[in-house]
Amino acid sequence: MIINHPLLGPRDAQEFTYLGDAALIDRPDALSFPSTEAALDAFHDYLYLRDNPAGEHRELWFHEQGDRSWLVVTRNTVTHEITKVELARDVARAKGRSK
Amino acid sequence: MRYSGFRVIAEALTGHKGWKPAWRDPEPQASYDYIIVGGGGHGLATAYYLAKEFKQARIAVLEKGYLGGGNVGRNTTIIRSNYLLDGNEPFYEFSLKLWEGLEQDFNYNAMVSQRGIINLYHTDAQRDAYTRRGNAMILHGADAELLNRDQVRAMYPFLNFDNARFPIKGALMQRRGGTVRHDAVAWGYARGADQRGVDLIQNCEVIGIRTEGGRVTGVETTRGFIGAKKVGVAVAGSSSKVMSHVNMRLPMESHVLQAFVSEGLKPLIDGVMTYGAGHFYVSQSDKGGLVFGGDIDGYNSYAQRGNMPVVEDVAEGGMSLMPMIGRARLLRSWGGIMDMSMDGSPIIDRTHIDGLYFNGGWCYGGFKATPASGWCFAHLLATDKPHPTATAYRFDRFRKGLMIDEKGQGAQPNLH
């Protein structure tokens, strides 16, 4: 697979390591829950449960052998076709993270 | 149809005209007591044991393609029970015991061959870890032996013993481990289930699960609605797809695992071997091909085919272990889809919907588990209680912190 890095251009997927679903960006805020149990439930869902779709999947890849940037790659899990590559930083900032 | 030596001779003398299909091809009935979703090894074993051991009736197995066309038809056929943790080892040892009596049980030649499996170690720390694992196995009634370097050399003199980085120091051996003819397992269970009145319905994909007041009432399929009192899902690889019909998110990702066969070679490896310094495992089929594999590709996939970097990685593992295979040609490679769970261990459990049961998350160790998985799932379906060897395989183990993580990798499915 070739990942079209937004800064570096097309790079072999071998240069990257894979983390998983891009929803991992949305880590819950433990202090925002009314009780410890509710926070534990939310963190259980965040850490252990996945949508795991057959088809389009947004996922986190780390350019370990390159510029060490995190990318959000939109890839089809049935065909392996990659349709979109974004910097994870941009995705997270668009959601209001790291203000 | 029953098989015997006399039958083979009689058929040979009469031009093999008397053989008939080994199971029926029935139309689905309007409803059943039990519907098993998935006609692979685990689903067929479940139906077989439900009918035979738990004396249940009105059972159907629904398969979207053909029987045994998924992972039971695309694995590396290894059986073993060399696990460390309490939640796993009794279950896998139960499975190995079932393998040992399987052919007599369903009167079908599954070519169960207990040719022995060795896990090589290359460092003192690895030896200590295998000593501990071997002791855990023995405590649970399995067999284990720690071999030193000379004992391994006597068995496989051609290995790369004096590699500067990864010298082979010895191995953990389980003599009762081995290989099984994988397709015959599916066929044997299918035939045995069919003989006991189970309807095996092929080309019948489940596209919905109907519930009423928190209780399952049946499944929507490509061949219409089929009612059921209890539905058991055993579709490892596609678990998330099927369970999404009831809006369940599972603690797993689907990954592709590749396997390989070399051209036929003269007898070389009479057992099963795993490399301790890289992920590589190999056995030799009765036709002479080296059957081997390694890591999963490492990204979510439903494609049943992998990419080249893992082919290279596996080939490197093989070359580093047995340099002389470099001249052998690769005959075939293929991929299968694994439920990679969050701790590397499976789930056999109820769901939040009454009458809906789940069996999956086998990672890439599902084949060896086939008989016990079927037995334990049938136990759960018939009695509503988990089998004593499968009590740890629950959905809520992640919420309760009771993970069964053999490798200690944490919630990162592609590392298990």
Automatic annotation (TrEMBL), chain A:
Pfam families: SoxD (PF04267). GO terms for biological process: tetrahydrofolate metabolic process. GO terms for molecular function: sarcosine oxidase activity. Transmembrane segments: none annotated. This is Sarcosine oxidase subunit delta. It comes from Paragemmobacter kunshanensis.
Automatic annotation (TrEMBL), chain B:
Pfam families: DAO (PF01266). GO terms for cellular component: cytoplasm. Keywords: Cytoplasm, Nucleotide-binding, Oxidoreductase. Its main location: cytoplasm. It is found in: Cytoplasm. Residues 33-380 form the FAD dependent oxidoreductase domain. Gene3D superfamilies: D-Amino Acid Oxidase, subunit A, domain 2, FAD/NAD(P)-binding domain. One of its GO terms (biological process) is tetrahydrofolate metabolic process. Signal peptide: none annotated. One of its GO terms (molecular function) is sarcosine oxidase activity. This is Sarcosine oxidase subunit beta family protein. It comes from Paragemmobacter kunshanensis.
